[in-house]
Amino acid sequence: MLSERTEDGRQTIRMEVEDGSIETLINRESIENRVSQLASELLQDYGNEPVLLVGILNGAATFLSDLHRQLPLNFIVDYMGVASYGSGTESSGSPSINRDLKIDPKGKRVVIVEDIADTGYTLETLINILKARGARGVEVCALLSKDEQRKVEGLDVKYIGFHIPNKFVVGYGLDYNERYRNLPYIGVLTLKE
Ligand code: IMP
Ligand code: MG
Fold it and tell me: Taking phi first (over 0 means left), then psi (-120 to 50 degrees means alpha), and beta for anything else, what does residue 159 get?
């Protein structure tokens, strides 16, 4: 492992891995702090109202389990499985559902919990599906957002943990070919030549 300083003076760690190298972008402590703040925002906006948090598998599972434990009992959780990436680092643009909700969203206030808003196609599709099923007010909480990559105009992501540059990131639930989800921090993956 190599410890380095970036141009703006931040301390980063670079780790060599099978696919190339990973450099820390958001450390564990910053993630913890931001997740607590997001929980406070949700609590402030929803209070005692019943809310269904819809976690998008597999990427959002880590984030959602940390977020959920900081919220009161009126927040319940279910999951949807969506495949939008295949095995590469580019969005395919046509997400398909491979695991559906067990809880009926009809009449419920729903917050979609996602790891990252990239092009926005996945979120747009999910918002439309949940609205069509009668969810009452669908909002989105994404841990990360690559604003530069957005293709869906007017996509409203109400709660965003961190705005990040257009780089491929892994860790804290995010993967490359199913690896690196269990890193406790978020890092930029640079693939081997
Ligand atoms: P979108 O439909 O292009 O917004 O893609 C969203 C999905 O792509 C996310 O749920 C992630 O699973 C995946 N994704 C986008 N960017 C990254 C990244 O940098 N690392 C890992 N997965 C990513
Ligand atoms: Mg995902």
Answer: beta
Question: Which residue has better confidence, 88 or 50?
Answer: 50
Q: Which two tokens stand for residue 9?
A: 């003076």
pLDDT over 80 (residue 17): yes
Between the alpha carbon of residue 2 and those of residues 9, 66, 124, the distances in Å are: 15, 29, 39
Q: What is the position in ligand 1's atom list of the atom closest to the CA of 82?
A: 10
Contact 62, 172 (CB under 8 A): yes
Bridge partners, residue 111, by sequence: 53, 139
Over 60: is that where the pLDDT of 87 sits?
Answer: no
Task: Return the residue whose CA atom lies nearest to atom 15 of ligand 1.
Answer: 118
DSSP summary character for residue 119: S
pLDDT at residue 86 in the model: 53
| Ligand 1, atom nearest to 149 Cα | 3
3-state secondary structure of 32: helix
Q: What digits encode the pLDDT tens for the residues 126-139?
A: 999 999 999 999 99
Whether ligand 1 lies within 6 angstroms of the CB of 105 is answered as no
* Each residue's pLDDT tens digit, 39-59: 999 999 999 999 999 999 999
Distance of CA 79 to the CA centre of its chain: 13
Residue 124 Cβ inside 6 Å of ligand 1? The answer reads no
- C-alpha span between 188 and 137 (Å, rounded): 34
Rounded to the nearest angstrom, the distance between the alpha carbon of 71 and the centre of ligand 2 is 22
